[in-house]
Design brief:
Elements (H helix, E strand, L loop, with lengths): L6 E5 L4 E8 L2 E9 L4 H16 L8 E5 L5 H18 L3 E4 L1 H9 L3 E5 L5 E5 L7 E3 L8 E2 L5 H14 L6
Parallel strand pairs: 1-4, 4-5, 6-9
Antiparallel strand pairs: 1-2, 2-3, 6-7, 7-8
Helix pairs in contact: 1-2, 3-4
């Protein structure tokens, strides 16, 4: 049995800056702030606060988990760029986790919807193996919606999924 990696997970793909630290299979520290802008300036200090709360440093990390949307393009770029820089500097893997994956893990079901701008919705049907599609509105029928869960729940799930995923993408 392989040891569980310590994972620092974070997400800035919407109007928030959120982070969670997974160690020993449980969330040991987390932080979340609602913000419409300023994620680029706030992300690294927030990550340091989460590490400090848990009594850890960057050297204790085994993986980075990062939210990859769908969501705000600039926000997603902020988090992915930070994850890439940390992963390269620490020589550890960075694992991208979509909002579809966290929603499915939190709520179950194969049909996952993520609200999009202008009343639209992204839909991914894991049952058919299809790619996400942008629809003019929220579809009907059995469905799990990402907004049914809190941002802290999603970022904690990013950490758990990143801990379980093969870093080589296999």
């Amino acid at each position: 049995m392989r040891p569980e990696p310590t994972v620092l997970a974070f997400d800035t793909s919407a109007a928030h800056c959120a982070a969670a630290l997974l160690s020993g299979g449980r969330i040991v520290a987390a932080a979340h702030e609602e913000m419409s802008r300023g994620q680029a300036e706030r992300l690294m200090p927030l990550l340091q606060e989460v590490l400090t709360e848990a009594g850890m440093t960057l050297a204790d990390l085994g993986r980075i988990g990062v939210g990859i949307g769908p969501g705000n393009f600039t926000g997603t770029r902020i988090a992915v760029s930070a994850a890439r820089g940390l992963a390269l500097g620490l020589n550890i893997p960075a694992i991208g986790v979509s909002l579809f994956d966290t929603t499915r893990a939190l709520g179950g079901g194969d049909r996952i919807a993520v609200p999009a701008p202008r009343g639209q919705a992204y839909l991914r049907d894991f049952g058919t193996g299809g790619s996400p599609a942008l629809l003019p509105d929220l579809p009907q029928g059995p469905l799990t919606v990402s907004s049914d869960h809190s941002v802290p729940d999603h970022v904690a799930q990013i950490a758990r999924i990143a801990a379980d995923r093969d870093p080589a993408g296999r």
